[in-house]
Amino acid sequence: MEIPKKGLIDLHVHLDGSLSFDMARELAKMQGMEIKSEEALKRLMVVPSDCQDLNDYLTKFDYSLELLQTEKAITYSVCELLKIQKAQGLTYSEIRFAPQLHIRKGLRQEQVVAAAVRGLQGFSSSLILCCMRGADNQALNLETVEVAREYLGKGVVALDLAGAETLFPTKKFESIFREAGRKGIPFTIHAGEADGPESIWAALEFGASRIGHGIRCLEDRTLVRRLEKDKIPLELCPTSNINTKVFKNITDYPILKILDEGIKVTINTDNMTVSNTTVRRELQLLADTFHLSEIEIGHLIKNAEESMFENKK
Ligand SMILES: [Zn+2]
């Protein structure tokens, strides 16, 4: 079947993983940096077929982050990404990034977020601010929560927790999300991707209203029932999970099982450039591999519509 060309939604897309090569070149030019060749950009920003795991995948963000350290660069990249998403038939997106990764040249997190908000033009989109998994960044994460509160309803719709799941387990970040809860900021958390069901349990205990990935919930029956009963949306990103070797091939991807379980799932890109994909491509891949019907695809799109943070203001 053919995927609709309009009305698509991406609820899980990282800004730094989704800069097009044109954007990367323009950003380099803007900042007097070396303009890289197509080949070099591919090597720096797109995951190779022999990618080892999530930690390996995360190295593909280094160059983009180098380009995104000024207010002008951040505003430009959000604005350009929206143009691309609009051209791809999206009607809404929630773009996420970690303000604390954009402060290397002296910006404050508040300035980073203000610059991103200025980029939200001409298209219906919102921002999700990521806290980062790390050993010694508690103060930076708390600052992200503060800034999210300040901009909630003014471009920002939620918080997230991103980074290396197995190195820094979800449960270590409880105080951050308790604080978010106290401040009334909704959040999603990357969980059940590289790490197992216990990371999803921790996210739910903190009060997450969505789960980033969450595909490994299938390893725990009680958890599956809980997600289904509470209608907690999962932000699935199939190609990204193949890249990071959560599953070897797309044919191993348990979409039919997860749909059978009645869990509310949405289909997203994660990183348009790193994973070389679009929402339409992700849906097409699932439709082709698993012979999904028009009704099933329509259902996945509707799930995304119903799971937007914007609806929960
Ligand atoms: Zn992600």
UniProtKB/TrEMBL annotation:
The answer to whether UniProt assigns keyword Protease to this entry is no
| Record flagged with keyword Chaperone | no
User: What EC number(s) are associated with this protein in UniProt?
Assistant: 3.5.4.4
Q: Which UniProt keywords apply?
A: Hydrolase, Metal-binding, Zinc
Q: What are the BP-aspect GO terms? A: adenosine catabolic process; hypoxanthine salvage; inosine biosynthetic process; negative regulation of adenosine receptor signaling pathway
Domain of life of the source? Bacteria
Q: Which cofactor does it need?
A: Zn(2+)
EC class of the enzyme, as a word? hydrolase
Gene Ontology MF term list: adenosine deaminase activity; metal ion binding
Q: Which GO terms describe its cellular component?
A: cytosol; external side of plasma membrane
- A Pfam family hit: A_deaminase
**Sequence ranges assigned to domain Adenosine deaminase in this UniProt record:** 9-309
Q: Which family does it belong to?
A: Belongs to the metallo-dependent hydrolases superfamily. Adenosine and AMP deaminases family.
Q: Which PANTHER family does the UniProt record give?
A: ADENOSINE DEAMINASE (PTHR11409:SF43)
This chain's protein is named adenosine deaminase
